[in-house]
Automatic annotation (TrEMBL):
Residues 14-104 form the CS domain. PROSITE patterns: CS. This is NudC domain-containing protein 2. One of its GO terms (biological process) is protein folding.
């Protein structure tokens, strides 16, 4: 079995003061650097459909309304190597046109170049899913790829 598309093609991260966030068609990933030796009991994380809260050692790190809705009961967080918290949120809208422009409604926006690269990646990921067996991981895309690119689903096969 081949590796998932995002593992072969890499990610397009958006840097933040506390770490980075990135996305695939289905999920949004948040990676937060924390002091070495952090324990799970030092972490307070609340994930809801449109809201995220994260505090480490009593200090708020991240809090606010998410850019778009997620499946609340599928959100998870893990503490890795006692120095990184990874939050995984499942998007409600898993369409290639649903490229989040920021993590929170009014914060952590991707700059225009990063946003463009994120949209390209989601469009290629969509093409990969529509055409299993073809490897799009090294492909370049140009032209109209905004909102997920052209829709070929109505064409006869």
């Amino acid at each position: 079995m081949s590796a998932p598309f995002e593992e072969r093609s890499g990610v397009v991260p958006c840097a933040t003061p506390w770490g980075r966030w990135y996305q695939t068609l289905e999920e949004v990933f948040i990676e937060v650097r924390v002091p070495a030796g952090t324990r799970a009991r030092d972490v307070r994380c609340a994930l809801r459909s449109r809201h995220v809260e994260l505090a480490v050692g009593g200090e708020e790190v991240l809090q606010g309304k998410l850019f778009d809705s997620t499946v609340a009961d599928e959100g998870t967080w893990t503490l890795e190597d006692r120095k990184l918290i990874r939050i995984v949120l499942t998007k409600t809208n898993r369409d290639a046109g649903n490229c989040w422009t920021s993590l929170l409604e009014n914060d952590y926006a991707a700059d225009p170049w990063v946003q463009d690269q994120m949209q390209r990646k989601l469009t290629l990921e969509r093409f990969q899913r529509e055409n299993p067996g073809f490897d799009f991981s090294g492909a370049e895309i140009s032209g109209n790829y905004t909102k997920g690119g052209p829709d070929f689903s109505s064409l006869e096969k």
